[in-house]
C-alpha cells in the first residue's frame, strides 16, 4: 500500500503515534537533564568505581539467561510455524542474535525481522514465515510480561499501597481465560494474506514459564547492580523496571535510551540517583551493548561463512 492509498484513519493513527513518541522523548529529555544537572560528578564517579566485580559478573550471567530464554521462544515459534524446515540450532541462533541487535537499535519488530531474514532466508523461509515467527515469539515475550506483572501485583508491592492485588487477580483471570481459549480448539488469526497459528494450551503454558524466567532474569541483570543501601525489595522494583521498558518501547528510542533511564531515576531520591545511574550504565554494558557487540560479530561470521559456501558451490 502506497502513502497515497493509505486511509485517513491510518494516517491519523501514524501521526498521533509519532506525536506521542516525540512528546515522550521531549519530556524524558527534559527530566533527565534536570536529574543529571542536580547530580555531582564525584558522587557518580565514586559509585561507578565501587561497583563490585561479582555483581557485574552476576549481571552478565542474568543477561545470558534472559537471552537463552529468548532463544527458547524462537525455537518454539519455529517449530510451530515452520515445522522441520529449519533446525533448532539455527532458530536458537536467530532468536539470540536478532534480539541482541534489536534491543540496542530500537524499532524492535523491524530490526529483528531484518536480522531473522538474513538468517532464515538461506534456509528457504520467506517474509510470511518470518512474520509468523516474530508474532509467536513476541506473543511469548508478552505473556512473560503479563505473568511477572500479575505475580508482582498479587504479591502486593509497597508502591501499590494496597490496591495492587485486585488488578493482579484480574490479570491472572485473563491469563487463565486465554489459556482455556487456546485449549478449546486449534486457533488461527487471518491477517491480510497470511495466517498466524496460535500455540495450543500446552505450548502457551510453556511460553508463560519461559517468559517468566526471561523477564525475571532481565530485571535481575539490573537489580543485582544496585547497592544494598538503595535497593528496594525485588517485588517493588519489578513494576518500576517493567514500566521503564514499556515506555522505552513506546518512545521508539533506540534501546529506550533516555526514557528508560528517566523513569528509573524518577523512582529514586536525588541522594540515591548517583548509585542508580552507575548501576544503569553498567547494565547497559552487560545487557545491551555487550550482547549487541557479540550478536553483530556472530551475524558477520554467519554471513561470511554463508558467502564462502555459496562461492564454493558456484565454483563446483
Any overview of this molecule?
- With 316 residues, this protein is mainly alpha-helical.
- It has one domain.
- It contains 11 helices and 2 strands.
- A hairpin with a 2-residue loop joins strand 1 (188-191) and strand 2.
- Helix 6 packs across helix 8 (201-223).
- The chain starts with 7 loop residues before the first helix and ends with a helix.
- The model has no long low-confidence stretch (mean pLDDT 86).
Notable characteristics:
316 residues; mainly alpha; two-stranded antiparallel ribbon; 11 helices; 76% helix
Q: Roughly what percent helix?
A: over 70%
**Broad shape:** globular
Mean pLDDT: 86
The strands making up the biggest β-sheet line up spatially as 1-2
**Which structural class do you get from the secondary structure elements?**
mainly alpha
Could you spell the SSE succession in H and E letters? HHHHHHHEEHHHH
Count of extended strands: 2
Point out poorly predicted stretches: none
Q: What Rg is obtained from the alpha carbons, in whole angstroms?
A: 21 Å
Task: Please give the domain count.
Answer: 1
Strand coverage percent: under 5%
Tally of separate helices: 11
Distance between the termini: 42 Å
- Main beta-sheet strand count, sense and barrel state: 2 strands, antiparallel
Amino acid at each position: 500500500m502506497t502513502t497515497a492509498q493509505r486511509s485517513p484513519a491510518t494516517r491519523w493513527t501514524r501521526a498521533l503515534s509519532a506525536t506521542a513518541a516525540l512528546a515522550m522523548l521531549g519530556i524524558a529529555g527534559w527530566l533527565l537533564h534536570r536529574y543529571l544537572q542536580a547530580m555531582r560528578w564525584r558522587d557518580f564517579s565514586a559509585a561507578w568505581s565501587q561497583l563490585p566485580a561479582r555483581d557485574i559478573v552476576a549481571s552478565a550471567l542474568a543477561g545470558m539467561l534472559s537471552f537463552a530464554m529468548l532463544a527458547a521462544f524462537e525455537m518454539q515459534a519455529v517449530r510451530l510455524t515452520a515445522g522441520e524446515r529449519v533446525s533448532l540450532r539455527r532458530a536458537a541462533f536467530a532468536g539470540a542474535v536478532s534480539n541482541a541487535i534489536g534491543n540496542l537499535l530500537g524499532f524492535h519488530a523491524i530490526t529483528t525481522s531484518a536480522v531473522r531474514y538474513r538468517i532464515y532466508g538461506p534456509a528457504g523461509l520467506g517474509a510470511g514465515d518470518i512474520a509468523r515467527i516474530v508474532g509467536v515469539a513476541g506473543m511469548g515475550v508478552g505473556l512473560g510480561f503479563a505473568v511477572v506483572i500479575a505475580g508482582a501485583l498479587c504479591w502486593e508491592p509497597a508502591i501499590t499501597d494496597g490496591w495492587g492485588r485486585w488488578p493482579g487477580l484480574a490479570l491472572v483471570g485473563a491469563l487463565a481465560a486465554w489459556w482455556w481459549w487456546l485449549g478449546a480448539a486449534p486457533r488461527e488469526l487471518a491477517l491480510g494474506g497470511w495466517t498466524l497459528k496460535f500455540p495450543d494450551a500446552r505450548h502457551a503454558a510453556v511460553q508463560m514459564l519461559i517468559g517468566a524466567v526471561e523477564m525475571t532474569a532481565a530485571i535481575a541483570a539490573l537489580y543485582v547492580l544496585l547497592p544494598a543501601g538503595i535497593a528496594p525489595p525485588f517485588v517493588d522494583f519489578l513494576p518500576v523496571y517493567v514500566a521503564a521498558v514499556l515506555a522505552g518501547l513506546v518512545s521508539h528510542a533506540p534501546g529506550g535510551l533516555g526514557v528508560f533511564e528517566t523513569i528509573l531515576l524518577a523512582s529514586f531520591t536525588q541522594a540515591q540517583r548517583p548509585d542508580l545511574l552507575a548501576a544503569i550504565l553498567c547494565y547497559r554494558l552487560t545487557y545491551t551493548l555487550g550482547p549487541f557487540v557479540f550478536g553483530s560479530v556472530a551475524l558477520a561470521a554467519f554471513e561470511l561463512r554463508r558467502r564462502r559456501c555459496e562461492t564454493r558451490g558456484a565454483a563446483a
